[in-house]
Amino acid sequence: MASRTLTLANQITILRLTFVPLFAILVVEGRYRVALAVLGAAAVSDGVDGLVARLYHQQSPLGVALDPIADKILMTTACLVLAFRRALPWWLAIVVISRDVAILVTTLVISLVSGYRPFPPSLLGKASTGVQLITVLLALAAIAGVPFISSRLVQTLVYATAVLTVSSGIHYVVALRHHPRQAD
Asked: Does the pLDDT value for residue 172 go beyond 90?
């Protein structure tokens, strides 16, 4: 891993974190199209930071920790403000946030008991995050009045998000229990 901390990849991740309050303010103020652009930029930055880290060998412990934190903060904020605006059901926001809290608490407890261990994301976890992002983007697009985004499509994605979120949460907690302890 790269020894530098504030790499270009990490700076892009930090930029994604700065999009979060701007996005929330725009949604709360009803400026949905601008919020959609900000959320789109945040989604693109999520892919770009990982690509930059791999291409330029800028993987760092900070990036490994910061990237999923930025994802969780963005997704939690998006679910909450879109539920507040009735673009997403409250129960979905609760499911998404509860899964993340359960993973965080489980990881913390295992780390405290067994020592720190990196927990790479699973394929199911990545799929869940991807579908969550698509659902949030399309729910926002629907309230922004983007043509061809139907409420039926958003509703279908809401249920797909719920199933994947619960499944990945269960999978992650089970996988954590069987994750080998890092050598001391």
From this structure: no
